[in-house]
Amino acid sequence: MQTNKLKSVLYAAALIVSAVSVQAGDWTQYRGPNFDGSSSEKLEIHAWPSGGIKAVWRTPTRLGFASFAVAKGRAFTIVMEEVDGVNREVCLSLDGNTGKKLWSQVLNIAKYDGGGNSGAKDNKGGDGPRTTPSSDGDRVYILDGRLTLHCLDAQNGSNLWTVNLVKKHKAKSIRWQNAAAPILDGDLVFVCGGGEKQSLMAINKLSGETVWSGESDQMTHASPIVADIHGERQVVFFTQKGLVSCNSKSGKVLWRAAHPFKISTAASPIVEGDIVYCSAGYGVGAAAFRVSKKGGEYSTKQLWRKPNKLMNHWSTPVCIEGHLYGMFQFKEYGDGPLKCVELATGEIKWSKSGFGPGGVILVDGKLISTSDAGEVVVSKAMPKAYSEIGRFKAIDGKCWTHAAYSNGQVYVRSTKEGVRYDLQGSVAVRRLNR
Do 47 and 96 fall within a single domain? Predict the structure, then answer.
C-alpha cells in the first residue's frame, strides 16, 4: 500500500515537472516570443502573499530604457557606461539565476538629441539607450542608437558580425536616435532604417547578409512585429507613412494603411485576426484597420480613428479576446491610466489611473503592469471592470519599460537597477501555506 502511494506521489511529481517544462519559455525579444507582449506560460494566482514578493536578485543597470531579453538562463539588456571618458551603449549579460554579470560588450557612442541624463523623478528623455536586445539563446542582436546592427556570441559577448546600416543601406538617423528593436523570426532579423528603396530589411541572423530590402519609408522608434494574417507570414512595420506589411520571406509588400506622423511614433502595431491597431503620441492618436484578401490581393479598410485620443506614447498595449489593455496616455507621468479598449470600435471599457508611462505584458489571462514609479501590478484581463489581484514596489529608478516573463520569473528594469522576482513560486508558496 505504501509502495502504491509512493508511486502515485512520484507520478504526480513527474506530471508537475513535465507541465513546468512545457510551460517554460524564454522571453527572446521586445514584445516576447509571440511578438505581442504575451507569454504562453501558465500563471495561477489563488492568493496574494501577505508578506509581499521578495526579489531573487537585484543588480545595478546604469541608465537606459531597454527591457530584458531572457534566453537559455541569461538575461540581456543595454546600459550606459563610461568607457575611456566617453558614454557608451553597452550590452550587459547577467546570470539568470544569480543576477551576476557574465560579460559586457561596448556597442556605440551614447549620445542623444534632446533630454538629458536626468534623475529618477525627472521626465526628460535622454537617459541612455532605449533599444532592447533580442536573443535566440546562442546569439544576441542589438540595433544600437546610431543604427549599427550587432550580433554577439551569447556565451561570451564576442562580436560575430556587425552591419552599419548608415554605410551599407544609407540609413538616416531620426530625432532621439534609434529606439526600435531588431525582431527575430526563424533565421531572419527584421529592422527598419535604411535609405531610398531599402528602408525595410530582413537580415540573415547567422551571416549578417541582407536577405531582402525595399521601399523608401522613413523609420520611426516603433519596432516591427511578425504575424500570420490570412494564412500568410507577414512582418508589419510602423513607418512615418503608416503601416506597411511585407511577406516575411520575400519582402513583397502586401498592403499599406496610412497613418499620420508627428515628431515620434514609438509603440508597435498590434494584430488580432484580420484587425491591425496602431497609435502614436504628439496629438496623432489611434486607429484600427481591417485587412482583407480577395483573389490573392490585399486591401485595408479603416474601422475607426481617434485623433489626439487613445495615444500610446511609447508603451505598446496587449490584446486578448478583442480588447486592448495598456497605457493609453501622453506625458501623464505618475498618474496616467491603464485602460481597456475594445479593438473593433475604440470604445473605452474602463480606466484605472496611477500608472504613468510604464508597460504591460500578458501571462495566462493576467496583466503584469509596471508603473513609472517602479510598482508591479497584477490584474485580470477582463473588459467588464478593472480587477486587481495584487501589487508590490519592485524597483527604484525611472521605469519606462515593460517587464519580461520567463519560467515563472518576472524581470523588471529601470534607469537604476534590474530585478528578478519569482512570481509563480511566491504565489504557489502562499497557496501551500493557507
Answer: no
